[in-house]
Fold:
Amino acid sequence: MAKFKLALGLLASLLFALAPAAAVHAKEAASKSSAAKKQNSKKVKVVVRKGARATGDRAIGPRAKAAPREKAVRRVVTVRGKRKVIYQRVTSAAVPMAAPMPTMGDLAGLNLTRDPLDLKSSVALVLDQSNAEVLFEKNSNVALPIASITKMMTGLVVVEAGQDMEEVLTITDDDVDRAKFSSSRLKVGSQLTRSNMLHIALMSSENRAASALGRNYPGGLPAFVNAMNAKARKLGMNDTRYVDSSGLSKMNVASAHDLAKLAMAAFQQPLLRQFSTDPKAIVEASGHPMQFGNTNHLVANPGWDIGLQKTGFINEAGRCLLMQAVIEGRSVIMVFLDSKGKQSRTADAGRMRKWLEALKPGNLVLPGG
Structure:
């Protein structure tokens, strides 16, 4: 009996010693079982390799056209408890491009007018500056939005008003464009002389600078706009109307013939010629130097002799250009409105120049006779 009790005690001691190890093994087994269940429940894993097709076609680069694209899709699936890897081709639909907003010229059907030079501008006019002889014209009497060409009249009114060009003006919240939300490097609070404001308004088409010039006219912006319209009437610009000093409004309209008259008047002002044709300039804004460039790259081209220029663009107006240049010894005024394409207005100027160069001065004939 004593031996039986001793054996029973040894057996109990052994069971107590083995219990922790068994618990650990049981916990590990349960953990592995849980992981296996999670792996089985996640039956599909999708991995997309961007920029290449599963069939080995060339990678689709960032410059590719907007077209349906194929991607290699690697899928990890579980079939009857076994994992398998399969590859599938997936075609993603291309996002359609939004149609460009029609300009006011498009709405009037001017874009349907054809010309022998295949100009991309719906409106074009070229005059001999010495005698106002029409050398080329296309829809030149139609009043259209003129965008920032407006700033040439802004400059003419400022210069003729005889205001102090060294007076320091401040950009205020009133100069911020809340109609089209155009960008500007001039922050609210920036201070520049009137001369520098005019310089970057003409050269870089700075909208806030043009607005500040109008606000700081005697009587404020309303009086300035009245002066712009009065000057237009004085110049015989009968199809012209201004509502602001920057050209952001589509209500600033003029015909090509009217803008040619403006160019001839502005050309008489040396400051407007200089400021509008500087390729670039550094101006002081609140004591800090800022470099600005010209919106018309032709002024930096040594092959061109340009004496005055102004570009313009808003959606309703398309790309616009007003320019005085000397071609084959003849001073001409060029006007291009409602041009399609970022470089199309200067390209049209180049087409017009080649046509003028091919003809002898004094013996110019319009295309088609």
The radius of gyration is 36 Å. Residues 14-27, 32-65 have pLDDT under 50 and may be disordered. The longest strand covers residues 69-79.
